[in-house]
Design a protein that fits this description.
Blueprint: H1 2-5, E1 18-23, H2 31-35, E2 40-45, E3 50-54, E4 72-77, H3 85-93, H4 95-103, H5 116-157, H6 161-166, H7 184-191, H8 193-212, H9 245-271, H10 281-307, H11 321-342, H12 357-384, H13 397-424, H14 440-445, H15 448-481, H16 489-503, H17 508-531, H18 538-564, H19 570-573, H20 576-583, H21 599-617, E5 620-626, H22 628-639, H23 642-645, E6 648-653, H24 657-664, H25 666-669, H26 671-680, E7 683-687, H27 740-752
Parallel strand pairs: 1-4, 1-5, 5-6, 6-7
Antiparallel strand pairs: 2-3, 3-4
Helix pairs in contact: 3-18, 4-5, 4-13, 5-7, 5-8, 5-9, 5-10, 5-12, 5-13, 7-11, 8-9, 9-10, 9-11, 10-11, 12-13, 13-17, 13-18, 15-16, 15-17, 15-18, 21-22
């Protein structure tokens, strides 16, 4: 490794200095390994992001003659993790929020769709995404209230003596106990503490992650170039793209206000609803006044969600007064509601289900389906036009992922409700025992895990068959690639399996389409069950719901384990780990409680480093990125002005820029955007392997030059050779530097960085 980084070529006397800035991927990268020297010095950064050089290169700029013909190597280590294993499990538990945020960035851009028409569609799409994300937050609070306020307090403790006898831990809330807490008002207030605790926890988590990422003002903000491509140029070049401080603050405030207001309204619906026998006009007037104030606060929060768009063309750093005070106002109203609940109400008894909960859940279902339909309406015109062949689901990926997020949130929440109801009923079927049980809507939603497992089994079988067929076909391709080698069926099968496994990445759109179709059908079935428009067999309903309550906790455990082991094994790193990598790349434009955007720290860091070095030395820069690091490198290059881009060579390897980002986020990494960047760089070279499940070709080659290399051979040798006395490993996504082609292409790029480096071609 050290020979590669220290290779010296003949240099002209007037050749400027060159910095090689290496941006590794998400797999833990040791600077000692990357630079081939155990003596590393940290020259900048903190515990999250760091710049390292070899000890001999720390003051390289002061000794320019020693670096004629070779670069000064430097690594940028970025915070490629969203926390420890348990924290990743938490983020996956909030998977619907994660998916909703991803969906907000998936609006396509078909050929020729520019200007005001697309701008209006994009605004409508973004507003509906933010509203749908807010609905998910309200839905979470509603289901938690269904558990603690309706099932535990209202139905079991307050209304059913037999239920309390089976759950003695609720005895202090029973009217038979005669205690102050046993009255419906105080017991409901006590039940509201569970959703309130979750609200405070999410708000605190959102505030901490916001302070570590979005709240950090980008360096050199005054010198960031304005978008030089006109009002509808590439968004990644806009100065405020990686500074979402104000938007995330506004969204977090609005979501917190909506969540607290939802809790207040559920309490007030019970306090002012049926079951009251006191008939006090004073109580009734006070409660209706509180309801009006809470509705006013909720309306303001919804308005804030609608108006909290992104300000990418400038750095929006001011604080919003509404964002600062609306959560405090809603909390004050909740405290007043608690005070009202503690007041005595003689003769008030709890009957049936908690007032208002059924209307709230049904309204959320209708609202989410209406917003999802609106998202599809926004994307259908793009899907109907001629789209680039690499765009996933013909541009409908965003609405499909949003629908999938709503479905997952609904079914997992419903399963949790049924599990609690089953515990309260002592194992009897909920609704057939001592309490009314969950709503029919919730029982129908609890079928979801069964459908999810069925879909997973069918997809796994189909993928296995496809994989087996691919191995049989690719065996002959492998034998052709390694002509002249002694036949070895086991070795051929091993390499063919690696090729076929890497190609399985292309089946993800099929899985998304199938999941979206399943979600739409299940939502239709939930709506039918909620309206009693179709009489299901009770035995059939109970069997599916019961099976769902068994499968649901198992899926919960699998989700947590998947997050904990996201980067432990190659298979999990290329699935769950990749999902987390992609989710932490995009700013939180839809949901403030999604995983934080690590790129809002990394991209300005890289921009600062490149810009300051180029300005201070007048030199050239070789930007080298692997995997997710190549995406960060490209995003940072987009941020630089053209006069700086033309002094940069870009070397990417194992890059998901086109294969994943260009396919699912075409408005930002589509062929036109990548071609625009390639035209302004000095040169761009991309290395890839057919065995790599993440990286792939950029596929924007023009008549002037090719960006992509030929696919690298993997493994380097088929059988045993003098250089490889043991079988050469199949590297897939890892260790591109081990291939001789890497050193050759790197040397080619360094040669192009000489004094006669060509300027970028003029654009049409």
């Amino acid at each position: 490794m050290s020979e590669a980084w220290g290779a010296i070529r003949p240099a002209a006397a007037d050749e400027p200095m060159t910095l090689e800035l290496i941006v590794p991927g998400t797999q833990p990268a040791d600077p000692q390994y990357l630079l081939g020297d155990p003596r590393m010095i940290q020259i900048g950064g903190d515990r999250r992001t760091r710049l390292h050089r070899r000890a001999d290169d720390v003051d390289g700029e002061q000794r320019p003659d020693e670096y004629r013909g070779r670069p000064i190597p430097e690594t940028y280590t970025w915070g490629s993790r969203v926390g420890g294993g348990w924290m990743r499990g938490v983020w996956l538990f909030l998977g619907p929020f994660l998916l909703m945020n991803l969906a907000s960035w998936m609006l396509p851009q078909a050929d020729g769709t520019e200007g005001r028409g697309r701008s209006h569609v994009a605004r409508s799409y973004a507003v509906m995404m933010r509203l749908l994300a807010a609905a998910l937050t309200v839905q979470l609070v509603a289901y938690l209230a269904e558990i603690s306020m309706d099932l535990m307090v209202w139905q079991c403790a307050a209304a059913s003596r037999s239920c309390v006898e089976e759950n003695t831990w609720l005895l202090f809330l029973s009217p038979a106990n005669g205690s102050w807490w046993a009255r419906p008002g105080p017991s409901l207030a006590l039940g509201a503490l569970l959703p309130l605790f979750v609200i405070v926890l999410m708000a605190r988590l959102g505030q901490r992650t916001w302070a570590r990422t979005e709240a950090l003002r980008p360096a050199l903000s005054g010198l960031r170039p304005e978008c030089d491509e006109g009002p509808f140029g590439p968004a990644l070049s806009r100065p405020g793209f990686w500074y979402g401080r104000r938007q995330v603050l506004r969204l977090r405030s609005a979501h917190t206000t909506l969540a607290i207001s939802t809790l207040s309204l559920l309490l007030l619906a019970a306090l002012a609803g049926p079951g009251r026998k006191d008939g006090s006009a004073l109580f009734t007037g006070f409660e209706w006044a509180l309801i009006g104030l809470v509705l006013l606060a909720a309306t303001g929060a919804v308005s804030e969600v609608v108006r909290a768009g992104r300000s990418e063309r400038y750095l929006a750093a001011g604080r919003s007064r509404i964002a600062a005070y609306s959560p405090r106002l809603s909390m004050c109203l909740l405290v007043l509601t608690f005070v009202d609940a503690f007041l005595a109400r003689p003769g008030w008894v709890a009957t049936g289900r908690l007032p208002g909960i059924e209307a709230l859940l049904a309204g959320l279902l209708v609202g989410e389906m209406a917003l999802a339909a609106g998202l599809f309406a926004c994307c259908v015109p793009f899907a109907a036009r001629r789209m680039h062949g690499r765009v996933a689901l013909r541009g409908l990926g965003g609405p499909v992922v949003a629908l999938l997020a709503c479905w997952l949130a609904t079914i997992f929440s419903a399963v949790l409700v049924l599990v609690v109801a089953d515990i309260l009923e002592g194992g009897r079927t909920p609704g057939l025992g001592s309490i009314a049980g969950p709503l029919p809507l919730i029982e129908a939603a609890a079928w979801g895990p069964v459908l999810l497992v069925l879909l997973a089994v069918v997809f796994a079988v189909a993928v296995s068959v496809h994989h087996a067929r691919g191995v049989r076909h690719l065996r002959f391709v492998v034998e052709h690639d390694y002509q002249g080698e002694a036949p070895d069926l086991l070795r051929s099968d091993e390499i063919a399996r690696a090729h076929s496994s890497a190609a399985l990445t292309e089946t993800v759109p099929v899985l998304l389409a199938a999941s979206g179709g399943m979600a739409a059908l299940h939502f239709g079935q939930i709506a039918i069950s909620a309206t009693d428009a179709f009489a299901y067999s009770r035995r059939f309903v109970d069997a599916l719901a019961g099976l769902g309550t068994w499968l649901g906790p198992l899926l919960y455990a699998l989700v947590f384990l998947a997050g904990w082991a996201a980067y432990a094994w190659p298979a999990s790193r290329r699935s769950v780990g990749l999902l987390l990598d992609i989710s932490t790349f995009w700013p939180r434009a839809a949901h403030p409680f999604a995983p934080p955007c690590l790129a809002e720290r990394a991209v300005p860091d890289l921009q600062w480093r490149m810009l300051t070095w180029l300005r201070s030395t007048g030199g050239r820069l070789l930007l080298s990125g692997h995997g997710q690091g190549s995406v960060l490198a490209a995003a940072a290059a987009f941020q630089l002005a053209p006069e700086y881009r033309r002094r940069i060579c870009l070397l990417t390897y194992g890059s998901p820029l086109a294969r994943i980002y260009g396919r699912y986020f075409p408005a930002y990494f589509g062929p036109s955007q990548l071609r625009m960047m390639e035209e302004e760089l000095a040169i761009w070279r991309n290395l890839w392997r057919r065995t790599d499940p993440i990286g792939g070709p950029i596929a924007i080659d023009t008549e002037f030059r090719a960006v992509d290399s030929s696919p690298l051979r993997d493994p380097l040798a088929f059988g045993r050779t003098s250089k490889h006395p043991l079988y050469a490993p199949i590297l897939s996504h890892d260790d591109y530097q081990a291939d001789p082609v890497f050193a050759a292409d790197r040397a080619l790029l360094l040669a192009r960085l000489g004094p006669r480096m060509p300027s970028p071609r003029p654009r049409d």
